[in-house]
Design goal:
α3 runs parallel beside α5. It is built from eleven helices and nine strands. It is α/β, with parallel strands linked by helices. The two termini are 26 Å apart. A hairpin with a 6-residue loop joins β4 and β5. The strands form three sheets. Strands 3-6-2-1-9 form a five-stranded parallel β-sheet, sandwiched between helices. Strands 4-5 form a two-stranded antiparallel sheet. 53% of the residues lie in helices and 12% in strands. The structure holds aspartic acid (ASP) and magnesium ion. Magnesium ion binds next to loops.
Length: 257
């Protein structure tokens, strides 16, 4: 089973721990692969930092520090002790790389599509070690896995598509190195022939999860999100929206169109 958790499901300690419990229960029954998004709001936040750095507006540093603190706090809230050490190292490394990239963009005053993809991928590269640490700390050994290692991607840097056929061997080989540990894979991107980041577009973690499920011939893929239910309309746009107590698959499909 492939279980995907969106930004809201990993965005607060309480939500992340609830997601961890869902994975733990699933893992007791079947072989599980987890896909996670960046913490809620982080990809958009990084996009803003990038725009500020590009405009040589030094205030990106404040936003960057807030981002770093948020991830450190999140890790401390969901994992501790030895299980948190690899995650703390991964966070430090990922955060340092992000700062280097933003500094480079500020210095050069330009950003290529390739650099932009690298920068935007940082959110998932920071959330996956935190999720893996929460699982390990909760008694389920888990390892953060980069999307470039398991998913082949083709097309533009910011709007690529997964190549499922080419991903089959890639993901099988990587999972074989993990033993019993659960893979916690970054959503949102795969890797091109050179192993470089190719984004599947905003909201692309669902694409990552479904492509991985296809490449693994998984029994099913579950897209988890932390909301109160399905509403009659987008509650952000329509104050009269109501939560639906029951819903058939056919009705969901019609609503989704
Ligand atoms: N983090 C990415 C985004 O915000 C991908 C995703 O969450 O699906 O678009
Ligand atoms: Mg989404």
């Amino acid at each position: 089973r492939v279980l995907k958790f969106g930004g809201t499901s990993v965005g607060s300690p309480a939500a992340l721990l609830a997601a961890r419990d869902i994975v733990r229960a699933a893992e007791a029954e079947s072989r599980v692969v987890v896909v996670v998004s960046a913490l809620a709001g982080v990809t958009s936040g990084i996009e803003e930092l990038l725009a500020a750095a590009l405009a040589r507006d030094p205030s990106w540093r404040d936003g960057f520090r807030a981002l770093r603190e948020r991830h450190r706090r999140q890790l401390a809230a969901v994992a501790g002790g030895r299980a948190a050490v690899p995650a703390a190292d991964a966070l430090d490394g990922g955060i340092e790389r992000l700062r280097d990239l933003l500094r480079a963009v500020e210095l050069l005053g330009e950003v290529s599509p390739r650099t932009r993809a690298w920068v935007l991928a940082a959110g998932e590269r920071l959330s996956t070690p935190i999720f893996a640490a929460a699982l390990t700390c909760g008694g389920v050994a888990a390892v953060a896995v980069d999307g470039t290692e398991v998913l082949a991607a083709v097309g533009p840097h910011d709007d690529a598509l997964p190549d499922v056929a080419a991903s089959r061997q890639k993901v099988a080989d990587r999972l074989a190195t993990l033993g019993d540990a659960v893979a916690v894979v970054t959503g949102f991107f795969g890797g091109d022939d050179a192993g470089e980041v190719r984004l599947f577009g905003r909201g692309g973690s669902d694409t990552s999860a479904t492509a991985l499920a296809a490449a693994l011939a998984a029994e099913r893929v579950e897209i988890w999100t932390d909301v109160d239910g399905v509403a009659t309309a987008d509650p952000r746009l329509d104050p009269a929206a109501r939560w639906l107590p029951r819903l058939s698959y056919d009705a969901v499909e019609a609503l989704a169109l």
